UniProtKB/TrEMBL annotation:
Protein's recorded name: Uncharacterized protein
Record field: compositional bias (Basic and acidic residues): 73-97
InterPro entries: GH, GH79_Enzymes
Chain intervals with Pro residues compositional bias: 98-124
Gene3D superfamilies: Glycosidases
Domain of life, per lineage: Eukaryota
Region (Disordered): 65-129
Cross-referenced SUPFAM superfamilies: (Trans)glycosidases
Length: 365
């Protein structure tokens, strides 16, 4: 137990009530002075030893200073008899239950170490792909140094043989395509649109059809035919008319439309007809109706080619009087050059009636 300096409590109270600061009238108690009821002060400890203990300790110290020890000296008889009251007090103290010790608080655990800072991000490479901004976190190499400084524009020389035969791009090379139900939009404001269409040439080509030619119900309205004639008169437009092939009654529908064309469009303004539109996108995919059962649709390219040949021959067959044929049809109008086999196109060209009706093989880019 650490030594403690004991001071009279009256002195402490006097210091607390004093006006001056820093000065004190208190003095430590001397050994043997009463520091607590029934206890004396000994070497700074209160209650550590009574008067008897002090005397015994003093005698032991004196013996040590003379060179002897308590072990060598004969035991002395204690003439004093033990006090029975003190013995009873000691026994009572032994029977007291042990006092609970205050719980020792554990020091708080140290906080976990902070994680190391993240490494710096790598450089980013950015480029455009299909209209989307793509960013990759990849190291970018330093750009290579040019071999030589660029002094100016390079000179390119080309040689053209003056006697070589050249091919001129036909005026029919470019054209525009429009749905049946949108033709009146141009005719109703023909003064504005004629300057745009004339950019394609003195006699621009307009394909009328698309998805609406296979999905229209009935015949085109009279206003549409009038709009086509109005466009021809305004800027010398020529037309490729789209005929239906998906409906099972396409032969009757196509024949009626071809008769209406003769009524509203001059022959010089008619390039021809396109039979059907992008058959690979039909609801049941590419295929055709059987000849013996016109209501039964059979999928597959062979069924489509036979169906196309039968309808085309019915509406633009070979003349029966032996005169030269007048092929007016285009087909198959495939939706994408990458979705059709070249062998299929050649089969179209070799069909039995193709020499009479096939004006050109068509594939939409």
């Amino acid at each position: 137990m650490d030594a403690t300096t004991w001071i009279e409590p009256e002195c402490i109270n006097a210091d607390l009530e004093a006006d001056s600061q820093g000065a004190t009238a208190c003095r430590p108690l001397q050994d043997g002075a009463a520091c607590w009821p029934g206890s004396v002060c000994h070497r700074g400890l209160c209650g550590g030893a009574d008067e008897l203990g002090i005397k015994m300790e003093s005698a032991a110290v004196a013996a040590l200073t003379k060179g002897g020890s308590d072990a060598d000296a004969p035991p002395k008889k204690d003439d004093k008899k033990p006090d029975p009251k003190k013995q009873d007090a000691v026994k009572k103290d032994d029977k007291k239950p042990p006092q609970p010790q205050p719980a020792v608080k554990k020091p708080p655990s140290p906080p976990p170490p902070s994680p190391p800072p993240p490494p710096p991000p790598p450089p980013q490479a950015t480029y455009m792909s299909g209209g989307r901004l793509v960013v990759y976190d990849i190291p970018l190499p330093s750009p290579p140094a040019p071999a030589q400084p660029v002094a100016g524009w390079a000179t390119v020389a080309s040689v053209v043989e003056s006697k070589a035969k050249l091919t001129r791009v036909p005026q029919t090379f470019l054209a525009t395509s429009h749905e049946w139900d949108r033709m009146m939009d141009y005719a109703n404001n023909v003064a504005a649109f004629k300057n745009i269409f004339r950019e394609f040439g003195p006699s621009p080509i307009i394909r009328v059809g698309g998805a609406t030619q296979d999905r229209m119900v009935g015949q085109p309205a009279t206003e549409i035919w009038v709009a086509l004639r109005k466009m021809h008169e305004a800027f010398n437009a020529r037309f490729l008319i789209g005929l239906p092939l998906l409906p099972s009654d396409s032969i009757e529908r196509a024949k009626t439309m071809m008769k209406t064309v003769e009524k509203y469009i001059p022959k010089k303004a008619l390039l021809g007809y396109e039979l059907g539109n992008e058959p690979e996108f039909w609801p049941d995919s590419v295929g055709g109706f059987k000849a013996k059962d016109p209501k039964k649709f059979v999928p597959g390219f062979d069924a489509y080619a036979e169906y196309f040949d039968r309808v085309a021959t019915a509406i633009n067959g070979c003349p029966k009087n032996g005169s030269a044929p007048n092929p007016m049809l285009s087909g198959p109008g495939w939706g994408n050059v990458n979705t059709i086999d070249a062998k299929w196109l050649s089969k179209h060209a070799r069909m039995k009636g193709a020499k009479c009706y096939m004006r050109e093989l068509s594939v939409h880019p």
